[in-house]
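Hello,

Our lab assistant flagged a job as stuck in the queue for most of the afternoon. It eventually completed. Since we weren't sure the result was trustworthy after the delay, we are filing this so someone can double-check. Below is the sequence as submitted and the structure that was eventually returned. Let us know if re-running is recommended.
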Amino acid sequence: MIRFHSVYMATINNNINPFVWSNMKLSTGCSPLDAILNGGMESGTITELYGGGGTGKTNLCLQLTRNAALQGKKVLYLDTEGVSTERLKQMSRGRSDEVLQNTLFFRAHSFEEQEKRLDEIERISFSGNLDLGLIVVDSMTIFYRTLLNSKDHQNATSRLGRQMIKLLRIARKIDVPVLITTQVYQNQSDGSEQPVGGHMLYHNSKTILKIEKGRGRHSRRVCIIKHRSVPERESIECRICDDGIVSFE
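-- returned structure --
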């Protein structure tokens, strides 16, 4: 079981102080985001993060990976898009070896491989051999999206649902945070951006965050779409830098 402690927010520098746990939540490392999430990312649940290309979804995934790994926790990271370990090293600065040692990467190149990797992650999670701090799937729907216009789309939706249930079972059984990402599509009726995966992801995720580009080149806005204890549509402004997604201060 994960031990949780009081939050200690540290400034990133060459001697990185660990981000720690509070009230069963993992700090994002971005103080305004932690503030609207009442301390950070919850364990025992799935958090869905969605947004357009280049908005910073993977940045936040890597940032949370770093934060958990620096606590000596193991992170299981399922990559379906080609994540940059060099970016993770950049965020981790002088402690990149420690972070990489505590991060287990799984890669999938098809929907079938994604299912197999999730089976492996479930087996490893339930083995009791690792002190898990976080599970990441980035992205959950990139392969599913390619099947939406095929004759097999109904079966693909059922398979996606089973994958979500598997992740939720892991999260609840070992009390670990699970973070998934998904892309967006444009709703033809009102022109709004909606997450790929729809109700299947919505109903299995306790927290849903939308990230989008802000007014400046590096500015970002993160908005709460769903949360069981925080008002919906509450949002914060932040920025992307070498250290990840941080406040403007």
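-- support follow-up --
The delay was a queue issue, not a problem with the job. The result is valid. Residues 153-174 form the longest helix (22 residues). Confidence is low (pLDDT under 50) at residues 1-23.
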